[in-house]
User: Fold this.
Amino acid sequence: MLLVGAGCAKDVPQSSVDMQYFYAESSALHTVAADSIQRFAVKVETYAQQNPQAKADPLWPEIIDNIKSAAQGANIHFVITIDTEWEGEIEIYF
Assistant:
């Protein structure tokens, strides 16, 4: 007896073309100067502010990890701005 079941394919979100470019560029950050890493981080942050859905992209965590890794290797320090009017808990991990 042969049983054939119809599987339910889970919808896997696809990365946008912009996010694919950001990922490719972020993967090479360890080869560039510190000022280039900072400019790229600002470019990604600006893009995310203008396109909030970017943070839901599957490549977003990898892009951020690549930026952090390159910045650490280049001895760049991050400045974090916190909205003090927000009444929730704030956790910062380094």
About this structure: The chain has a mean pLDDT of 79. Residues 34-50 form the longest helix (17 residues).
